[in-house]
Every structure is written in structure tokens, then in C-alpha cells.
Design goal:
2 domains, about 325 residues
Length: about 325
């Protein structure tokens, strides 16, 4: 009993020391010397309410703000992850191409500095890839998984394909005969067949969401065939590039199109921020009805003042914290229009 009693006293002392006293000392030191960091580096917005952490990336939807790196974790701090896609995986090439398509510019020639997007749309409307007609059908045939991903990406997409299948029962019957293992095909199963027929019925067009005024003056969004827009600029940029391999395009910062290992990197390179500067400055100038060069110079100065390098500048290239810079923009210019 004496041995057991001593062991219990020793266990109690060890638990109190390691699970109580030691953490309390560390907590006290942290709260005294580094209260901001130990509480998660949480920052507040103009209204005084927390808007995020300087340690975790979050998406920004408005053009007035700088965008963080792409995230394989959808910016979910509870699901930190990388994409783990190899360079041989077309899904990686497709994601990068979609990011570049709407913002790619020519680096030389008579169109130097101009966006490539209008030319992608004009090429798409001509409806020829590799000299053969039917761009959308070829896209679906070459990349079945992308066609299926489009159908499952949004409930309205699946509903649109379902409505199409009900209007084309003969096509569905033919599909079932060719695929006896799928007697009751879902919308995603019919993705490739749907796009093949859509390409024939609507050459030079793609199904995309369109918002218009409905009954009562309310905005209604539905899927309709379109021949311009961000979907075409992004989804078919890679095919356009294949058809135009010699077109001189400006380089894009690597971290603009690649994810970090965690998917939550809160910083981007200064080069990336400056690459986005024209868009951000242009939108603020439009909102504020001010001179673009002046607004651009102000934001450039803001970026320089918030730039930092790892190790106090001893190594690494200059970085900026996206949330910190965007809060500085909000403080300087107010809320976006």
C-alpha cells in the first residue's frame, strides 16, 4: 500500500505539472508577450468584427480585391490538403488553363498587351478544332471526366441535362443499348452524349448560366446556349492554345495558378500581386470615378509598404499577405460598389 500510495502521489504530481502548471506558464508567457499571435492572428474588419486570420487563406469574390493562391481544400481550414495532381494529369492542366484563359495577354506583335479572351471566343464561334467541326463535342470526347464534372458541378446543370434527356428519349434508348450495364442512366452518365448532340444543335455555343428578368421583375438564372463569356474563355483556352501554339503570350506568376501544399497559404508573391494590379486598380478607379494611373500608383505604393521577405529579407522573394492588403484597401477606399 505504501508503494501504491507513493506511485499515486507521483502520478498526481506529474499530471498537475505537465497538464496544468506547464501549460499555464506557457499560456501566461504567450498572452503577455505575443497575445495577437497566440490567439490565432485574428484581424477585425472596419466594423470591429473578426474577418479572418492572417495565417489562413480565404477567397475573395470581388474584383476590387487581390486573390489568394488556388486552394485544393476550398480554403477550408479543417481540410488542409494539396491537389496531389501529377504534371501528367490533365485535370491539373485544365485547372491552370481555366485560371489563365480570362486574363492571358499577348506579349508581342500587333496585339501586345491585349487580352486573348476575345480571340478565344471568336475561334470558338467558328466551331473548328484541329481543322474538324464540333469543338464542344471534341472537348467532351477527349475529356469525358471534365464533361461529367460539368454536369455534377451544379444542380442546374444536371437538371438541364435531365430535361434534354426527356426531350430526346430515342437518344437515351440508344445509349442504354450501347451500355447495358447502365439501364437507368443518370445525367452524369449521359454527359458525353449530351455534349455531342448539343454541339450539333448549337454549333459554336456552350450551355452556361444566364440571368434575366422573370415574372414580377425578379432575376432568374437558367442554363442557355451562349457564344461568349467566362466559361468559354476559361474552359476552351487550352484547346485554343493547342490550335495556336505560336501565339506569343505573357508569362503568368507560378503561384497565381498553383496551389500550396496546405491549400491555405495566406501569402502571395509581390510579383503575383502586381500581376493582379491592373484588375484591382481598374475596378477601384471605376467605383470611385477617379483617374486610373493615380489609383494604380496608390495601390502599388500600398503593396510595397506591406511587402516582406522570409527571414527578414535574408532569403526568398518578397511576399504580401492577401487579407492584410485587402483590409488596407478597404480602409483606404471604403466598401466596394
Amino acid at each position: 500500500m505504501r508503494s501504491i500510495s507513493k506511485s499515486l502521489w507521483l502520478l498526481t504530481f506529474a499530471v498537475v505539472l505537465t497538464c496544468g502548471i506547464y501549460p499555464a506558464i506557457l499560456w501566461g508567457i504567450g498572452q503577455t508577450l505575443w497575445p495577437f499571435q497566440v490567439n490565432g492572428s485574428i484581424v477585425n474588419g472596419p466594423d470591429g468584427k473578426p474577418v479572418g486570420s492572417l495565417l489562413v487563406a480565404q477567397p475573395f469574390t470581388k474584383d476590387e480585391y487581390f486573390q489568394p493562391r488556388p486552394s485544393a481544400a476550398s480554403y477550408d481550414a479543417t481540410a488542409s490538403a494539396s491537389s496531389a495532381l501529377a504534371v501528367s494529369n490533365y485535370a491539373l492542366r485544365d485547372r491552370v488553363a481555366r485560371a489563365i484563359g480570362p486574363i492571358a495577354v499577348y506579349s508581342a506583335g500587333p496585339k501586345q498587351g491585349q487580352l486573348v479572351a476575345p480571340d478565344v471566343e471568336a475561334w470558338f464561334q467558328a466551331d473548328k478544332f484541329g481543322g474538324k467541326p464540333g469543338i464542344v463535342a471534341q472537348w467532351a470526347d477527349l475529356h469525358n471526366s471534365l464533361a461529367q464534372a460539368w454536369v455534377t458541378a451544379d444542380p442546374t446543370h444536371g437538371a438541364y441535362v435531365d430535361a434534354w434527356s426527356k426531350a430526346h428519349p430515342d437518344v437515351v434508348t440508344q445509349f442504354v443499348k450501347a451500355n447495358p450495364g447502365t439501364p437507368k442512366p443518370q445525367a452524369s452518365d449521359l454527359a458525353v452524349v449530351f455534349f455531342e448532340h448539343f454541339s450539333k444543335d448549337h454549333p459554336g455555343m456552350f450551355p452556361s448560366p444566364v440571368t434575366h428578368k422573370g415574372p414580377g421583375g425578379k432575376d432568374v438564372t437558367e442554363i442557355m446556349p451562349v457564344k461568349t463569356g467566362s466559361d468559354i474563355q476559361s474552359m476552351f483556352f487550352d484547346m485554343w492554345r493547342t490550335d495556336h501554339p505560336d501565339a506569343p503570350l505573357a508569362d503568368v506568376p507560378g503561384d497565381y495558378v498553383t496551389t500550396s501544399g496546405s491549400g491555405l497559404d495566406p501569402d502571395i508573391t509581390l510579383e503575383n500581386a502586381e500581376f493582379q494590379l491592373d484588375r484591382v486598380a481598374g475596378k477601384w478607379a471605376q467605383d470611385l470615378h477617379r483617374n486610373l494611373p493615380q489609383v494604380k500608383a496608390e495601390i502599388q505604393e500600398l503593396l510595397q509598404s506591406h511587402a516582406f521577405s522570409p527571414g527578414g529579407g535574408l532569403f526568398g522573394e518578397p511576399l504580401v499577405n492577401v487579407l492584410e492588403v485587402n483590409l488596407a484597401l478597404r480602409q483606404r477606399y471604403g466598401a466596394p460598389a
